[in-house]
Amino acid sequence: MSIDIETAARVAKLARIRVEDDALPALAQEFSNILGFIEQLNEVDVEGVEPMVSVEPMRLKRRKDGVTDGGMQDKILSNAPDAREGFFAVPKVVE
């Protein structure tokens, strides 16, 4: 598939990338090359191939999902400009 200069300019605009007019032909060619690589990947027969998370078979590390209070209330509140009764104190904004 071939990408023309107008399409490359539109893609650059949508991506909010400033591309000078003299660089647009090279960008269009690069987009065409990328689409060519994608077309090559579509030709590969992947029937029966199991999806992988990593190139090496391994299990993800897991931990017990337990609810805790964090145990650091005093340490966290020590940085607060105003703390009362174990909570952050903020100015009232609603009357």
From TrEMBL:
Gene3D superfamilies: Glu-tRNAGln amidotransferase C subunit, N-terminal domain. Keywords: ATP-binding, Ligase, Nucleotide-binding, Protein biosynthesis, Transferase. One of its GO terms (molecular function) is glutaminyl-tRNA synthase (glutamine-hydrolyzing) activity. It is an enzyme of class 6 (ligase). NCBIfam families: gatC (TIGR00135). Heterotrimer of A, B and C subunits. Allows the formation of correctly charged Asn-tRNA(Asn) or Gln-tRNA(Gln) through the transamidation of misacylated Asp-tRNA(Asn) or Glu-tRNA(Gln) in organisms which lack either or both of asparaginyl-tRNA or glutaminyl-tRNA synthetases. The reaction takes place in the presence of glutamine and ATP through an activated phospho-Asp-tRNA(Asn) or phospho-Glu-tRNA(Gln). This is Aspartyl/glutamyl-tRNA(Asn/Gln) amidotransferase subunit C. It comes from Marivita geojedonensis.
